[in-house]
Amino acid sequence: MAVRAVINVDVDGPRINRHLYGHFAEHLGRCVYGGFYVGEDSEIPNEGGIRLDVVEALRALDIPNLRWPGGCFADEYHWRDGIGPKDRRPVMVNTHWGGVEENNHFGTHEFMALCELLGAEPYISGNVGSGTVREMSEWVEYLTRDGDSPMARLRKANGRDEPWRVKFWGLGNEAWGCGGNMTAEHYAQEARRFGTYCRDYGDNQLYKIAAGANGTDYAWTETLMKQVGHLGCRHIRSTGFHALSVHHYTLTGPTWEEKGSATAFDTDEYYTTMAAAARMDEVLAGHAAVMDCYDPGKSVGLVLDEWGTWFDVEPGTNPGFLYQQNTLRDALVAGVHFDIFHRHADRLVMANIAQTVNVLQAMILTDPDSGALVLTPTYHVFRMNKGHQDATSLRVDFRDALPGRPVGEAKLDTLSVSASRKDGAVLVSLSNLDAGEPVDVEIDVRGGALDGAEALILTSGALQDHNTPESPSVVAPRPYDGVKVAGGTLRAHLPAHSFVTVKASL
Ligand code: AHR
């Protein structure tokens, strides 16, 4: 028996902001150095030190934005250390991440060049925790001010005449923890103060994002929303912030010290991971409900600027580098997250996976010795799903109970589906999370006729399967003939632990 669902293709849901497919690159482990940036003298083909193979792979994802330089690193980063001739840039210690030396060779100009190569918008996290208002204010001036001013002059002296365009600006990171251990009340005042002096120069308008809650800390969100409410939403632009963030990772293990292996896990552990991933729905719904009380018009955005799986580091690697492999399980975690993001597209304006290269749930892993590049299963989900960017979300209503598995006291729904419409086509994403059983889905498509369905499948023999330089395509998308579209019905057979996308014209 198939699970029956309905999609009305002529009933518009909210637009799926393309920034829900955003990324995050921190000065952490081998994300920047060795990942994005190898230096101009490297044998790896590069432009100004930026790896061209990484750029090429990421361009295929249409990545909309890149958040930088942290994370926890952001609140210890002083941007003036990262400009000017490289041999004169000071060396600092990256105290958060392995205590390694940071030579500041990748700084503001290199980051902006990377964004230009990627075709992605920059999202800069400013330093509130250990920085000054003046320092942040001058960074904005350096980046975005045209004409004659102290910072514009300095930028020109460093070889860049034209100002850059920067929209997304973070007012610190995790202010409740590594970003200064502040209370919500104290941080709210700081966000207003720092935000006040981050100016809009010319027609460059900043979209300021306050550092938000840890997971389900809804009280943090309420405190920030009261600040915005007090100012009145129309004043946000000049005095406060336009959005607030939340960070929520998918953790499997019983304690922070035992997060579990990224590759060696059993079926029970797999279901625990998937149940943790599915909790994102509750987290976003909780923050959105608080925001609705203060801002029913939804003018303040919710930004999930860190999400993804967090496992134990690979044996033998630096514990401070957060390097983990990426299996089919990670791909299914990503698929479920995107379905949830699409359902919250009325409030959620951005999401950034942590992190793009070599850290946590990465798109790309690079070999530290040979430099070889591997595309992870998660990369393929981003690629298969990119048609949802800036599309109109379509509700998926189930007419039958969803299949599921018990996880602890709760039930994990093992079928997840989302859909959108763009440019005369419909894209449907379907995940069967069951580790051992296939499922059939029958979708009644109303309000328009679908034609010429093309399907792709991402699956593999085992949930633990992953890609390596020696076997780079163990988990890779393949054309799929298990989907049929006829007479207004879309029928899909989903093998166990599979992710399928279907694109059909309207
Ligand atoms: O992504 C790794 C770290 O996780 C970030 O630096 C921090 O913001 C979060 O705790």
From TrEMBL:
Q: What is its EC number?
A: 3.2.1.55
Where is the chain membrane-spanning? none
For whether the record's keyword set contains Nucleus, the answer is no
Biological process terms from the Gene Ontology for this record are:
L-arabinose metabolic process; polysaccharide catabolic process
The residues covered by the Alpha-L-arabinofuranosidase C-terminal domain are 305-498
Q: Cross-referenced Gene3D superfamilies, in alphabetical order?
A: Glycosidases, Golgi alpha-mannosidase II
The UniProt keyword set, sorted, is: Carbohydrate metabolism, Glycosidase, Hydrolase
Catalysed reaction(s) here are: Hydrolysis of terminal non-reducing alpha-L-arabinofuranoside residues in alpha-L-arabinosides
Tell me which SUPFAM superfamilies the record gives.
(Trans)glycosidases, Glycosyl hydrolase domain
GO molecular function terms listed in the Swiss-Prot or TrEMBL record: alpha-L-arabinofuranosidase activity
Q: List the PANTHER family hit by this protein, alphabetically.
A: ALPHA-L-ARABINOFURANOSIDASE C-RELATED, INTRACELLULAR EXO-ALPHA-L-ARABINOFURANOSIDASE 2
Q: How does it assemble?
A: Homohexamer; trimer of dimers.
Family membership noted in the UniProt record? Belongs to the glycosyl hydrolase 51 family.
Its name, as the record gives it, is: non-reducing end alpha-L-arabinofuranosidase
Provide the species name.
Paractinoplanes brasiliensis
Q: What is the lineage of its organism?
A: Bacteria, Bacillati, Actinomycetota, Actinomycetes, Micromonosporales
